[in-house]
């Protein structure tokens, strides 16, 4: 597959149905999950896209693109529910072919209109009834056990909205990790949270059984951070750097990652330079395109658009080159978004 077609798909999305989809929520969302050329691909659903997925092929203006593509099958664990009657699908979702993903707390102290990240819709899936506010550790353990047994899930991602406590939500993550590891000891888990004020919490997450960690800054440009993420921007970049360094010490090189979003207005060359510094510090910069979807302030208020294809490809190639030179690969992460790769084109360009 040509990289440019994969880039266009990541930006323009596709029309049509896929058995495994994700509704609006935390992070990049509202997508359908496909396998393209053997790699997981989370592609935005876009009724205006020129690409159509007909169940077997991707067509562009009615012509087969020739992509080797298949849909991810609906997992069997979606048909189960807890003893209390909560559908497993509301507790955790299948991402890509083999990732179980959950948002352990679906609310965020930063969700006020003047504070929230303008690309985020974490509480919209809660309002629509697609999920529950707080996932209980024993429920996640039950879902994870079933997803591994019935559907061959190989890794798990746990993210969280930010809580008011100084741990910023990490302690509940640790409780959830402990419960899942007790039920499925071999399932690698990545946790995702803001830098906890007490850096000792990072060790707690590791001791609970997490094997990778994402501490997501989204942009290294403070002006961009204040504009797009006013709440999160109150946490200084110096706090992120301290948390990444401690996480690399505890989890190891290339078991720590951060999202960098292309399309928020950051200078592409500065973005690549910043990503290289992260790589040198042992942190994997998971480069993803800004994905506009309704329900976010970016789309509903600002009318923001997906980034330019050439910019996404240039940044991704620049970052992938330094990853290769440094011997780092997303596939070498034990668990998490970098290990999955479906929301990025880094795996398509050697990262
Ligand atoms: S990259 Fe992360 S958010 Fe995207 S599908 Fe994979 S696990 Fe889910």
UniProtKB/TrEMBL annotation:
SMART domains documented for this protein: Elp3
Claim: GTP-binding is one of the keywords in the record: no
Gene Ontology molecular function terms on file: 4 iron, 4 sulfur cluster binding; 7,8-didemethyl-8-hydroxy-5-deazariboflavin synthase activity; metal ion binding
Keywords from the named record: 4Fe-4S, Iron, Iron-sulfur, Metal-binding, S-adenosyl-L-methionine
Protein name: MSMEG_0568 family radical SAM protein
Residue ranges of every copy of the Radical SAM core domain listed in the record: 97-329
Organism: Williamsia herbipolensis
Residue ranges crossing the lipid bilayer per the database entry: none
Names of the cofactor(s): [4Fe-4S] cluster
InterPro entries given in the database record: Aldolase_TIM (IPR013785), Elp3/MiaA/NifB-like_rSAM (IPR006638), F420 (IPR034405), rSAM (IPR007197), rSAM_MSMEG0568 (IPR016779), rSAM_sf (IPR058240)
Pfam families named in the record: Radical_SAM
Gene3D superfamilies: Aldolase class I
N-terminal signal peptide: none
UniProt superkingdom: Bacteria
